[in-house]
Amino acid sequence: MGTITSVGRCLSALAGLLLIATPARSERPIMLSYPYLEGGAAKMPKLRALAERASQSYVHVVIIYPGNPLAQDDPPGILQQASGIIIDGLGHVITAAHIARTTKNQARIVTRSGGRHAARILYIDRREDLALMQVAPFAGMTHAHLGDSGALKRGDFTFAVGSPSRGRGVV
Question: Helix %, strand %, coil % for the chain, to 5?
Fold first, then answer.
């Protein structure tokens, strides 16, 4: 599980990637919002371009409880929704372990354009609150370029990508 450990270390380079659950809602194209790029900050085109590039790897994660086929009162359904980030060209996606819960749950991602793709939950690290999922690579898939968290120093500029405050597609 060395890959999982390095993924966990790289997360700090994404500056506290926010992976907060969102309420159930229909799947539709994801619109981006830049709440901190208002006023004077909106005149920072390099910052906006960086946020736009980072957001290309953003996906909406839907965790589906498969249900219990032996119990009529335990049907399948949406269990959680959250944000996630595609981290490589193989279709690996990270989200929070408290969202994915178990590798037995089913999952899918929704891309910014509204495309749906089945995902498999591969691994859960409860200590780091990380879950690793995988989707089959698809046309137009863009992944994040993770940095070296060891190179970060106090005072370095960072920003978060995710869905805080029950939002969707916030950068």
Answer: 25, 25, 50
**pLDDT-derived band at 23, boundaries 50, 70, 90:** very low
Alpha-carbon distance of 61 to 110, in angstroms, equals: 6
**Single-letter code of the amino acid located at 118:** A
Could you please report the per-residue DSSP string of 95-132? E-HHHH--TTSEEEEE-TT--EEEEEEEEEETTTTEEE
For residues 27-36, one letter each, b for 16 or more C-beta atoms within 10 angstroms of the residue's C-beta and e for the rest, the string is eeebeeebee
Distance CA 150, CA 171 (A): 23
Owner of token pair 């500056």 = 15
pTM of the model: 0.72
**What is the C-alpha separation between 93 and 1, in angstroms, rounded?**
15
Q: Which residues of 48-105 form beta strands (DSSP E)?
A: 58-65, 77-86, 92-95
